[in-house]
Amino acid sequence: MKNVILIRFGEIFLKGKNRGFFEKVLYINIKEALKRFDLSVKKIPGRYLICDYEREFEEEIIERLKKIAGIFSFSPAIFMKTNYEEIVSQSVEFMLDKKGTFKVETNRADKKTISLNSMQISADIGGKILEKNSNLKVDVKNPELILNIDIRENCETFIYLNSIRGMGGMPVGTSSTGLLLLSGGIDSPVAGYMMAKRGVKVCAVHFHSYPYTSISAREKVEELAKILSEYTGDLIIYMVSMTELQEQIHENCDDSYMITLLRRGMFTVAEKLCKKFKRRMIITGESLGQVASQTIESMTVVSEVVKSTPIIRPLVAFDKCETIEIAKKINTFETSIKPFEDCCTVFLPDSPVVRPKLEDVLKEQKKIDFDEIIARSMSNIEVVEIKSK
Ligand code: ATP
Ligand code: MG
């Protein structure tokens, strides 16, 4: 017998003809995420199996598995060649240190090796567990623990307790590619996580206004990307300066249009990056009505610069507290709330336009050499590679 981890897929099951592709990508992602451990990943019908690992790393492996999109659930299990005596003794030993209510559930696909039916097996093993452990009580309706005995056709048996929920969703790399606008705030890392969960391979762009924004602000973004990369896999960040654009707007335009024009600059660069690096969508952390720049009027005049790339806003209907809940769950929250300035907070106007009109925005934009400034920003991009842990 040996210890293994049994992995169940999520929505992959829904994908009739493409199932092979989805399973293959998930297999590669699991191998990649666990590459620092000495172990093997095997495919068995409808499942994956993690084998040959050191028990002391089991907890760490479990934590890592929770961050792989496409895994529905998994269970640390005992795996053995089917032999009834052995199944009984392993089940009893498995339950020796447990307490509370339990039941045994048996699935017997192999009708040849064992003559008892599944009900009889459950009753027999349940009774033997009780004989050895007086801290347990049987409750067939609503037990705290379910001991599963899965006797498979090919003479192999798995024994495991309740399963652990995985991240769900679809394997990263099965739903195209996206460019995440990653600020140092709470929302954008959550937006990136949500699209990775839908199978999108994400890379990021961060806009800074160095020297108005500090090196610490940039380090914060890299720290966020590092946490995010546990879900997305290795992550590239394109660092783009908005300093000249902001200075020019500040000197030449009506200050209340600072954020609108800056954001038009960001989205223009984002689409150019998408074209250059073959990214199929722009992803942002915008949520309708959250701030002046996120009214539908602001979003409309800003999106107007993007011609042929979909802009995906996974948080558009979220309340801040719902986003914060996810940020805490994925562990980005504590980093996001570190107090460093973002380029949106540099030259912040006293009263930004809340419902800008396109004609007014274009009039302001004409006061600067918008296209040339953007071209200069594009010619000076720094690429930072973030390696997933
Ligand atoms: P966040 O918490 O993600 O910063 P926010 O609520 O502060 O969002 P805004 O500052 O208006 O809202 O930004 C809206 C979205 O625009 C962000 O979620 C992000 O996708 C993008 N964005 C804002 N600032 C930057 C930046 N400096 N670099 C890259 N993207 C940015
Ligand atoms: Mg922000």
Short description:
The model has no long low-confidence stretch (mean pLDDT 94). This protein has helices at residues 19-33, 58-65, 84-94, 118-132, 187-197, 215-232, 243-252, 258-276, 296-303, 320-329, 333-336, 358-365, 370-378; strands spanning 2-9, 40-44, 47-51, 71-81, 100-108, 136-138, 145-151, 156-160, 164-165, 177-181, 201-208, 235-241, 282-283, 311-312, 382-386. The chain folds into 2 domains: 2-165, VC0802-like (2-Layer Sandwich), CATH 3.30.2130.30; 177-386, Rossmann fold (3-Layer(aba) Sandwich), CATH 3.40.50.
Rg from alpha-carbon coordinates: 27 Å
| CATH C-level class of the largest domain | Alpha Beta
**Which stretches are poorly predicted, pLDDT < 50 over at least 5 residues?**
none
Could you tell me the strand content as a percent range? 15-25%
Q: CATH H-level name of the largest domain... which superfamily? A: HUPs
Q: What is the domain total for the residues?
A: 2
The biggest beta sheet reads: 9 strands, mixed
Distinct ligand kinds: adenosine-5'-triphosphate, magnesium ion
Strand elements, count: 15
CATH topology of the largest domain: Rossmann fold
Structural class: alpha/beta
| Strand/helix succession | EHEEHEHEHEEEEEHEHEHHEHEHHHHE
Per CATH, which architecture of the largest domain?
3-Layer(aba) Sandwich
Query: On the 0-100 scale, what is the average pLDDT?
Result: 94
The end-to-end span amounts to 31 Å
Helix share bin: 25-40%
Q: What is the global morphology?
A: elongated
